[in-house]
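pasting for ref
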Amino acid sequence: MALGDGIRRNVAMISDEEKERLVNAFLQLDTNQFLYPDGVSFWDKQEDIHKAAHAAGQNVHGGPAFLPWHRELVNRLEALLRLVDPQLSLHYWDWTTDPRATPDGAGNPVNLFTPQFMGSDQDNAGPPFQNFESTEGAELGNGHNLIWRQVANGQPSPVIPPVDPDNQVVNTGNGQPNNQQFPQMRVELERNAHNKAHGYIGGSIADVHYSFHDPFVFLLHSNTDRLWAMWQCMQGQEWRLDPSQTYGADGNSPAITGDIQPWAGNQPPLLRPWTPADHKQEVKTGLHPSVVSPPVYDNFNHPRAFFNIISRSSGKVLDVPNTADGTEIQQFTPHGGTNQQWQLIPIYGVDFTFFKIVSRWSSKVLDVPGASPDNVAIQEFTDNGGDNQHWQLVPTGDGYYKIVSKATGKVLDIPGAAPDDGVKIQQYTDNGGQNQQWQLIAIV
């Protein structure tokens, strides 16, 4: 298992060294080294985010937003962990196993609840999270001012959690019309697996309003997301990777089409730093490719969607005429070729989400040559990880996106809104024109 490969794994199967590094990252996020402008630690902000979503009236539980909203939360927390240790991934607890005796893949049971990893399985968590507070005591008067657990209601191990099996979860709705499959699957996943897993761990995690005080909840939610990703990546079901199709009948719900709070920062209660004053707002909906695109997990193949990227002004698509480094990107009439198909690979940052935009034909990425000015042509180039190869998709609010360079802050642009085949794509200062707006159409 390669540490740093970006794959989320069964946490019971990672090395002791990686467990130690993961714990250290959680601890570091709760120190003065990692504070938001309001003085709240990166860690404590996670519980604030969860509570604010409820206060804003979002149905992040019991409705269509449950899976996409929590994917955004988990992806962002993983980015914070990588700020401490870039090689880490946010691994998952397989909730079909007792976390005190979960298989390590080599025929041995592993206890995740030890002073070296996740702390105690009963009462206060203790080391290493002995200082992780909970607001339950102050708000409920239950005496718990620190995170606590009551795994399996205090019964000795092994006690298998009362959750539905993975195969039952991910196959729920199969055979129904496509527009009914996500609605049926997400209800099964939330009610008969996720909710029961929360109750099985007990303590702070048993109460939805306090569960995100406890680091273990992110291992639980990484597993929630893994099951959604498994459903998306089933062989022969590539349509589930298409933002316009994957949610089925839920796709028109305001919970999916509305901006994801609190990160959009345009609906109260506002949380810093996602406010106009702090300039960290990121507006996206459940249809955004970064939300629909599943992270990579260890136990199934991960097909990726490809997209035509279509100009609003000309109706033509991004096209690369050959495979050499430095080839300039052009617009061209759609013809179905792989040189007009692009993979969007999300890269979650501390504040914003960026993408590598990868040609299906050449496997090279969209690239701005250096820190270049207006009118410089966009090219394809071998991936080198530079900011000049990372792009932000900023919704215009009507189904189109501005594609913004991380390096320069400029946008993809068709010079003069020219309609002709072969016109080279450039970067240019954002002026709001339709020649700077793009539609993403999945090819599945």
